[in-house]
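Notebook, student rotation project (T.W.).
Task set for the rotation: take a protein with a known small-molecule partner, predict the structure of the complex, and write up what can be learned from the model alone. Partner molecule chosen: 2-acetamido-2-deoxy-beta-D-glucopyranose. Sequence and SMILES entered below by T.W., checked by me.
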Amino acid sequence: MAEMIHTSMFIFLILQCVRGFLVDSTTPKNPGVITDKHYIAVMDLLMEERQARHLLEQVVTNLQQKVQSLDQKNISKHAQDISALKLQVNGLVATCSLSQTNFGVLEGKFKDLEMNYTLLKDENQILSQDVSILRQTKSVVSMEHLKQQVQATSNKVNQLDYNNMVRNQDIIAISNITRQNQLDVKTIDHKLTQQITSVETEFREKSRNDTVVHRELTEALNLKIANLAANQSTQVATIAQKNYPVALTAWNAGGDVTIGGEIKFNEVKTSTGIRNLSAIHSTGTFTAEEDGVYMIAVTVNSGTNDSGFEIHKNNSTLSQVYIQGTAGDNDQSGTSVVSTELRMGDLISVIASGGSREKGIVHVDKGWSTLSIIKI
Ligand SMILES: *[C@@H]1O[C@H](CO)[C@@H](O)[C@H](O)[C@H]1NC(C)=O
Ligand SMILES: *[C@@H]1O[C@H](CO)[C@@H](O)[C@H](O)[C@H]1NC(C)=O
Ligand SMILES: *[C@@H]1O[C@H](CO)[C@@H](O)[C@H](O)[C@H]1NC(C)=O
Ligand SMILES: *[C@@H]1O[C@H](CO)[C@@H](O)[C@H](O)[C@H]1NC(C)=O
Ligand SMILES: *[C@@H]1O[C@H](CO)[C@@H](O)[C@H](O)[C@H]1NC(C)=O
Ligand SMILES: *[C@@H]1O[C@H](CO)[C@@H](O)[C@H](O)[C@H]1NC(C)=O
Ligand SMILES: *[C@@H]1O[C@H](CO)[C@@H](O)[C@H](O)[C@H]1NC(C)=O
Ligand SMILES: *[C@@H]1O[C@H](CO)[C@@H](O)[C@H](O)[C@H]1NC(C)=O
Ligand SMILES: *[C@@H]1O[C@H](CO)[C@@H](O)[C@H](O)[C@H]1NC(C)=O
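Predicted structure of the complex:
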């Protein structure tokens, strides 16, 4: 489009130029007379006109070509661009007028402000004067009052200072207490930790000891149980033995026995529960083989004046029997029955006695003198 405008302007200029050539500025001295000068000028003009026409033709041809090329080119896009540009220009114009309006408003405001400033300046001046006047009057009138106020204020400040100091001291004291408390807590914590540790250690040791003790106790108990079991069987055997009756009846073989000597009962007539009978056969004395309570019955038949006997448990006398003072036609018998507790190994013996006699013998008759022992 711009190109087209340019070309049009060019043509317009050329046309203007051509018209210019036809006007002769020099006016002839004699009108109606054609001079050489005129002819040459006309020729020049013709030549120039031809040249100009040629030029014009060229330009027209150019233009035609350009129009053709333009036709070939798609100008609708440019048209769109132009309409868009137009719209933008319109927008700009609107904006510009709006700005102008705003500017006017702002200008008004500025003037308003300027006026207000002037007014304020004046007011300020008046106020300054007022203040200086007031200062002068006040300094005189209320100096005393001011002094009092200052004094009161300074008193208050002092009080506040004092309060502050007291509070500071309180804070320091509280912080001291807090520090002390912290120390105490730390100490207690430390002690507690130590105690807990020691208790833990003790507990651990104790539980270890308990384990050891438990094991030892168990072992001891097991041993005792084994012992008891073993002892039980022996005890059962012993009890069975104890419950088994012990009984003996033996005869004296007959003959004289020296006073103080033992009347022996070697001839076993009946016996129960006695293991070592041969001991009785050889010694004629009863030896207890079992602990227990025994009944002992002894009968001695004798034809000797002043005769008797004693039953002895080991060397202690259990009974004394006086058979007779004077022997007559018939021999006399004496009997004694005693009961005693015997321990294993204790001896039961019958000793001959002679009443008032210290010496001599006691004659014992065979078959009439017996020793009977029974365990109850
Ligand atoms: C020019 O462009 C428009 C859209 O961009 C299209 O519709 C049209 O056909 C085009 N014309 C030529 C001659 O290319
Ligand atoms: C100027 O002062 C008047 C009166 O005090 C007030 O109403 C106005 O808003 C002021 N103008 C500005 C721009 O401050
Ligand atoms: C705080 O403690 C320090 C040292 O323990 C002591 O010198 C000071 O007097 C204490 N202050 C108060 C206010 O108790
Ligand atoms: C553990 O046993 C040992 C040795 O018998 C003993 O010295 C220690 O005191 C016991 N500890 C406790 C906590 O009973
Ligand atoms: C088992 O008997 C023996 C011998 O009689 C005795 O020394 C021991 O103490 C007894 N044991 C128990 C556990 O009674
Ligand atoms: C029986 O007793 C006699 C005499 O006391 C003794 O020598 C012997 O060893 C005993 N016999 C038994 C089996 O105890
Ligand atoms: C009894 O005592 C006498 C001496 O006093 C002694 O020789 C004898 O062995 C004792 N007999 C017994 C059974 O103890
Ligand atoms: C026993 O004593 C009587 C009277 O004293 C006497 O006659 C008698 O001979 C004595 N007997 C003997 C065996 O000594
Ligand atoms: C009796 O004597 C016997 C044999 O000397 C002895 O084993 C026993 O222990 C004695 N008994 C008493 C109670 O002294």
